[in-house]
Specification:
The complex is a heterohexamer, with three copies of chain A (112 residues) and three copies of chain B (468 residues).
Chain A (H helix, E strand, L loop, with lengths): L1 E7 L4 H8 L7 E9 L6 E4 L2 E4 L3 E10 L4 H11 L9 E6 L2 E4 L11
Antiparallel strand pairs in A: 1-5, 1-6, 2-5, 3-4
Helix pairs in contact in A: 1-2
Chain B lengths: L4 H16 L8 H6 L13 H27 L7 H28 L31 E2 L9 E2 L4 H23 L5 H24 L4 H5 L7 H19 L15 H20 L7 H29 L4 H18 L5 H26 L7 H19 L2 H4 L12 H33 L5 H6 L1 H6 L5
Antiparallel strand pairs in B: 1-2
Helix pairs in contact in B: 1-15, 3-4, 3-5, 3-9, 4-5, 4-6, 5-6, 5-8, 6-8, 6-15, 8-13, 8-15, 9-10, 9-11, 10-11, 10-12, 11-12, 11-13, 12-13, 13-15
The chains are: A alpha+beta (112), B mainly alpha (468).
The structure holds adenosine-5'-diphosphate (3 copies).
């Protein structure tokens, strides 16, 4: 199994989720994160104190899928999260050794 | 796409229409004219109790806009627009204060003619006229400036009257902001509101509340601003929603409110402040003020429960947003009626407003397909119409009776007709003028932020700030 | 499990008890009866200053519930229940407004007998009776309807008196909500509060504040609602906490408040609004109102510091929740005393309330093991008892003196006994009746949401909304 | 490091200076002295309207501190300090209430001498003196206690006057807290504020507002507290910022406000409450109160827009924090002027305050390098100076005219000089005394939390609580 | 070493932490996340605009343990986070190559 | 490529970011997390109900770097996040199999 971890623009979340469903992805986990990268933020000024907002709001999606689905999932995410503007984000793939569904105790492929 | 040039013609047409309206209801005028008979002897005196209540009412109505409306609206938008939404109310408060000082008050409340006042109070010129020995003891007379039309004699200083009215002039354009929330440029807002306050608000206030105003003379009843404030803001909001177009992502993105608890605080402060709005419109601390406060409370509660139960039955759950929206709808609807109706009528007005506004904000809007972000039209426009018309049904004569007019203005078909004239004129004049002013603003600075900026949120894009 | 059928018997018992109470203190009655001698000549006149203050006080007391109490309570619950908690205050405000209009006011403030009023003001019937020429100039007389018992003549319109009292009728059941926060069904709340307002609140208000009420005639002192509002709500809250049982996870889960800053805003608005509550209870803008405001401020500050230092010493840190809880305890305790005591007495009342309520909310509750989520009993019940009793100790005669009773009601053992009777009757009547009404409500719709729903949070489960 | 021992000398010097000041402006005294001629016959009567307004104003001014200022300040700090910042306002409210009751009021408002009052009202001794039959009908006379110097006769009870002034005594030290936010120990705050209220605030209030006060006699104008409240708090804040030193991480860490929407609510409530502050300072519901309210509104709006446009032009965006800061600057600046100037003057005062305070809070502070966390000095100190001086320019005689002084106090060079004396004496006395009191507090408990604790945040470290 | 990443129901956090302590787990890191899965959420309606809440609040626990402890930790989590109702969550195991304690510079087993 | 996951004290974030820039790290992702460990929290008391705050606010940094940069990055983080006081946090290293930049579709080394 592979953990696909994608950092995307927040407003693309629904698109990505919809793109994954047809592939049979039945679950995923998202977190609100802040991203630092090539995309530049705005400057905030509070009574003369300037802060450059170098961290921009992003969404991190973590989805564990069987190894053979990984390519399709990566493809689907990269398409649905794409705007072509700087800051679209990244996809990383990590190997998962084991998985378990807490409710049933099912493991690995069954657990996803 | 609406073309700007068409509007100029419409504007002219409109003026003509308005000039013609009084002719429709000439029969109603004599009662008001007769009121002129009662002439007070000697300069009218201040009453400290009435003045105390009007000072308080002014504070209460200011509180309705900041922080009341600011919170009510900010509580319904997404996180990225919370500050910008509060800023709209706050900035409008500041801008209109100066506009009103410079010319708005003069246009609205000096005699002039039936359509607008004159320029005798420009920059509040002369308002300190009879101050002597600090404590001015002469009360303000709202002069009709017309033979055979009665002046309105108050028991408070002119400064207090001017200030009380200023708070109404502030909240009205602030209400419009609900329609264009989440997407209007701040520079456009500044320009549009300045013009709107002078060209739309001040004249309509004159029509309805100045003794010389045509609607007032005709007998249109609007105790605290059903037409002047709510229908006016509501229709202007609808125009804004139509001209600006829908928010990016409308219908697909999740636009759930970020923090409805702000909206609850806002609605609560609106409710409390509305006691100043309605009971303050008696311009005295007397029995009429007491009755206005009573019917305000009852109609509001009835409307809140009306919306709540309508939603509970049709959607399965009574939402908090529903209950507070209903309360605001009730406050809106009772506004024109507040000094004219009794508790019984107020329950009917409340329930009607709650249910009808529930329908307009949750169904009508989606049927018609415009994106009035926070339902400025659905709640204030529709609620104002319900209230203005029902005032004509439920008005109880003795509440508005005077020596000169011992029957007062009782409800009935004749009054209902007058009310309809008030409603239609406001809808037409405000609607058309708002379109014209939007076109002017668009030509000057553009109306809407870019799509990327809208996505990023107005807080950071327009004001360089955010909440965390 | 408490069995419903036992309560019916208790209710009957209780009525008998209440009927018997006046006999305990017959000696106190003459002073009041003598007051009947002062009869005003001609219909009493409105005073615009007094009316201005009472209109303002009404707005202030409404602000105590929405948004004051709504915020105070919402600031102490977990995130998932913030909106539902605000909704409780808001919905109670709406419901009680209608209940009071329909029957509550009539039951509380018409002559009737010593236990409850009559039905002459059902639906506010007749409240517009003497309105003529808009400005009603006749002031309201709260009639005793009993020979040899004085009427209470005010200088304000009846509508204003009715409205001012309505805001008290609203906040009292809203206070109870603190005890069942986080777990009661919304439908149950709607039913329970409607019944409670009519069957518990209105009669007790009659006993204590109507000239014909037995407690009033007996000489029980309660200036602004120590018994009627606070002990009443406190004991009802305790009953709710006992009947509903503990919150899921109580004692094991972390139930830390989500956003105490809301509670600070709420407590602050309660404090400010309480000026209307206590100084408004003078029903005039006079020296007594000034003294009531003064002692309110002093007792509140003393109680806040009392709780704060007690906590600082015993727990090592002065918490913000402690300071604001102390302030509320002080406001509660000074309420019955406010028109009767001088600054010196108010300091003692404040310090006592702060320290005793600190103990009851932080120790007593845990010792006894009930889960009164937001300490409706610990703060309002206990604080109210402290205040009601100490009123009997510190009352300063001249503040309540009249022509008919030149000594007023000075503190002392006799008065303390009367105060104890007031406290006990309220505890018993309200406690028992609340139990009965809870059982009725339970039979009708059930009281508590399911365990899963409670875990998920009332916001989403009951109202389909959440804050983000 | 400033050495404590130097301050004692300075304190003595200062007293000498203050003693000498009256000599600079002897020519101004006669006008005031002449006012003594008007002697009322018989004990002065209460006016219910004036009393109603002053009760309301007291509630409004209390609302300025809690929750107004509490929110304004809490909205500008980081998340970890939100509760502690609200607690500062809340605790100061409680502490000063007791300090004022015990001795502050007596020091400020009894005759005494030109520098401070006497101890005749210690513990409010005698304030219930002429209460008889509950309703005290005798109005309060603020006695000068000096032959040939007029008493000030009011139309309200002394309790109300005392309470109104108490709310001023509360907000002044609460304003200082903006300067030491994020780093002061709570124990230090309790001690410092107690001393400061007695030793700095009460005497300065006496100088300016007691008929016997030297500044009052000299003719220094300060309608509602430009010197007594704002310059006083501003300079004290500057001293605190200097003595405590910068926040850990100042200049490197991101100190962006956690939730500016709180600050918007706070500024709005300050604005609304300020109507009580300024219009209430007329101590009556009359024309002067109306004019004070009017100029307050106009100056505030002008200042908000002034700051906003200045920022828009120089920094590219109009920030929300800028607009609300400007509004507060305008409120501050119009405070001393409010009962003396007309609308025209108020626009100038507003614009000047908005632009100058923008510069002082965004540039001056960084140039000078002190860390006044929330700009207590930059907004209140500087704004107060602008207002106090411009009062001397724009004062319109008739507003302050009396029978005894038919020309009132018109603006001009002579008045400007008097105003400058008022400003300088306040700066010097308050500045030096504040330093001394800080040293005393430091010696007793230390002023600042440790560096680790500051990083962790005051909420959890000082109060054991947090917001989530 | 293994990184055990568990997605659980929020109110189970304290139970899980308590279940891990006896195993010698001395540290862990948690984040608030939103989960999408078989468990269905509620519908929110705001003035007629309906939003289905497909993302439900979950807690993500990340705990790094020596490889030989992994089984016990998984077992402890799956037991203590179990309710048997849909939405109980998942446990994933990822290999960790290196670990370091910032305070001391200790590495790997020592760092946990 | 390696994913360096570091748990640090919140106020050290800017220092860490500045320490990484000179190494050529062009992007990273941060999340607000709560950490449980040897560092003890405060006790909160709300009207007599005591809660020990065992979870302290921490920042989690996730940065993916080419394998050969990993040592330097670990070194830089451990230096810049170091205060020497308990609770300074941990650094974990995980292997990343693939990476992709959504905007351009670039993969692996190119994507970072
Ligand atoms: N090396 C990295 N490790 C972890 N996250 C990264 C890395 N580089 C970029 N990111 C994440 O991806 C987001 C987008 O990267 P950015 O460089 O702004 O634009 P683009 O995606 O167009 O290359 C960043 O905000 C950050 O959250
Ligand atoms: N494939 C997956 N990858 C990542 N997280 C998942 C995956 N499947 C489920 N989850 C997480 O586990 C949670 C519970 O899953 P769900 O399908 O609702 O119920 P159950 O745990 O009973 O199977 C989800 O809310 C989601 O956060
Ligand atoms: N085994 C672990 N797995 C995951 N995170 C851990 C682990 N141990 C510690 N942490 C994280 O590191 C933080 C610091 O650990 P702690 O034991 O308090 O101090 P120190 O870093 O000085 O050893 C914790 O708050 C937690 O977030």
């Amino acid at each position: 199994m592979k953990l696909i971890m994608a950092i995307i623009k927040p407003f693309k979340l629904d698109d990505v989720r919809e793109a994954l469903t047809p592939l049979g992805v039945q679950g995923l986990t998202v977190s609100e994160v802040k991203g630092f990268g090539r995309q530049k933020g705005q400057t905030e000024i509070y009574r003369g104190a300037e802060y450059h907002v170098s961290f921009l709001p992003k969404i991190k999606i973590e989805v564990v899928v069987p190894a053979d689905l990984a390519d399709q999932v990566i493809e689907a995410i990269s398409k649905s999260a794409h705007t072509g503007k700087i800051g679209d984000g990244k996809i990383f793939v990590i190997d998962i050794e084991r998985a378990m569904r807490i409710r049933t105790g099912e493991v690995d492929g069954e657990a996803l | 796409m609406i073309k700007p040039r068409n509007f100029w013609g419409l504007g002219v047409l409109l003026f003509a229409l308005v000039l013609a309206l009084p002719a429709f209801a000439d029969d109603a005028a004599p009662a008001v004219a007769a009121a002129a008979a009662a002439v007070p002897a000697g300069p009218p005196k201040l009453d400290s109790g009435d003045t105390a209540w009007m000072l308080t009412s002014t504070a209460l109505v200011l509180m309705m806009t900041i922080p009341g409306l600011a919170l009510f609206y900010a509580g319904m938008v997404r996180k990225k627009n919370v500050l910008a939404t509060m800023m709209q109310s706050f900035a409008i408060c500041c801008i209109v204060t100066l506009v009103w000082t410079v010319a708005g008050y003069s246009i609205a409340f000096t005699p002039g003619n039936a359509y607008m006042g004159d320029f005798s109070r420009i920059l509040l010129n002369g308002i300190a006229g009879h101050i002597e020995k600090g404590n001015d003891t002469i009360a303000f007379v709202l002069a009709s400036g017309i033979k055979d039309v009665a002046d309105m004699t108050t028991t408070i200083p002119e400064t207090v009257y001017m200030m009380f009215q200023m708070t109404f002039a502030i909240i009205t354009p602030a209400l419009i902001a609900g329609a264009f929330a989440d997407r209007m440029k701040f520079s456009a807002l500044c320009i549009f509101i300045t013009l709107w306050s002078l060209i739309v608000y001040a004249p309509i206030a004159h029509w309805v509340w100045a003794p010389s105003g045509w609607a007032n003379q005709m007998g249109v009843l609007d105790f605290a601003g059903g037409t002047v404030v709510h229908i006016n803001a509501g229709i202007a909001g609808l125009m804004c929603a139509l001209v600006l177009g829908k928010r990016v992502g409308y219908g697909s993105d999740n636009m759930a409110p970020y923090n409805l608890s702000y909206a609850v605080i806002g609605a609560s402060l609106l409710w409390v402040g509305w006691f100043g709005f309605n009971a303050g419109s008696a311009v005295a601390a007397n029995g009429r003020a007491g009755m206005a406060m009573t019917v305000t409370q009852i109609a509001t509660a009835a409307a809140a429960l009306g919306w709540m139960f309508a939603e509970w039955i049709t959607k399965g759950k009574p939402s908090v947003l529903g209950a507070i929206s209903g309360a605001v709808a009730g406050l809106v609807a009772i506004t024109p009626a507040s000094g004219y109706v009794l508790p019984g009528g107020s329950i009917v007005i409340g329930v009607a407003a709650g249910i009808i506004c529930f329908w307009s904000a949750t169904s009508l809007k989606h049927m018609l397909g415009y994106d009035d972000s926070l339902d400025a039209f659905g709640v204030h426009g529709i609620g104002g119409i319900v209230g203005a018309l029902l005032t004509g049904v439920f008005a109880y004569g003795p509440l508005s009776a005077t020596d000169a007019s011992p029957d007062g203005s009782p409800g009935g078909l004749a009054q209902l007709k007058l009310q309809a004239i008030g409603v239609v004129s406001t809808l037409v004049y405000s609607g058309v003028m708002t379109l014209i002013l939007l076109m002017i603003t668009k030509a000057l600075v553009g109306l809407r932020v870019g799509q990327e900026e809208e996505r990023e949120g107005l807080d950071i894009v327009l004001h360089g700030e955010q909440i965390f």
